[in-house]
Amino acid sequence: MDPLQQHVQVLFRKYNRDASKQIEDLKHEVLSNLEAKVADLTAGGMDREEAIAQATASIPSVEHLIDDNRSVYVNQYSVEYVQIALLYALIAWIVSMPLRVVGTGAVIHSLFFVISLLIGAVYLVLLVRLRDQAFREKRAFLNMRFAYSLRKKGWWLWAVFILVSVLYTTAVRFGSNIWFWREVQISGPYQLAEMAIPYILPFFSLIVPLLLHVSPKLMRKYEVDEDELA
After folding, report:
1. Based on the number of CB atoms within 10 Å of its own CB, is 147 exposed (0-12), middle (13-18) or buried (19 or more)?
2. Strand pairing partners for 179?
3. How far is the C-alpha of 185 from the C-alpha of 10, rounded, in Å?
4. Where are the alpha helices (DSSP H) in the chain?
5. Is residue 230 domain-resident?
6. DSSP labels for 145-208?
7. Which of 115, 191, 108, 204 has its CA nearest to residue 165?
8. Contact, 34 vs 57, CB < 8 A?
């Protein structure tokens, strides 16, 4: 393969699965620019191999050319993202306290406590590192379209998961009652809790779509303002 074409393939390797017209047009544009630069350099007397090396070095990345990419202060973004995840985990831990009356609920409550500790430790480490200016101002490209797409899929999958969980729990616990038209007997508060908790537990997975939902907002919040940098 021609060295210039090979370089273009490497530049766009993250987007090879994206058959959009924008990506294909960008590939042709970048390749044409590289070929023109090599032609100019060789016309000035430079060896072709050296001209190719210089041309490819002039375009080390195409991230800034992708319309939906955003240059973001990635570590500041990550710190707030982890902070929000910690908040959700603590809320889930607090809300799950009444569920400790049943074994499964107690396990979930303890699990959220452990998760909160782990996320809290990561948050503290990132918060300390954020004092370093180089760490704080590190930039990376994040794709806004992908973030919105992931958010939408996350909500749909969560809705399907909740529906399946409710139907499955109902079928397992009350299938025979429904089939034979028998009344459900509840002897007391403890049995009511045992019946209700399997329905409640899947809703704690709401944390996942909520975290996906907040991602685009944080990307916009920590997007690099090129005008300010200039």
Report:
1. buried
2. none
3. 66
4. 3-11, 21-43, 48-58, 74-95, 103-129, 133-136, 144-179, 189-200, 207-221, 226-229
5. no
6. HHHHHHHHHHHHHHHHHHHHHHHHHHHHHHHHHHHTTPPPP--SHHHHHHHHHHHHGGGGGGHH
7. 204
8. no
Residue type for position 218: L
Please give the helix or strand (H or E) that residue 143 lies within, else none: strand 139-143
Q: Clarify whether residues 76 and 176 are in a common domain.
A: yes
Q: Are residues 36 and 78 in the same domain?
A: no
140 and 195: one domain? yes
Helix, strand or coil for residue 15? helix
In the block, which residue shows the tokens 């399907």? Answer: 160
pLDDT tens digits, residue range 12-69? 777 666 556 667 776 777 778 778 877 887 887 788 888 878 778 877 776 666 667 7
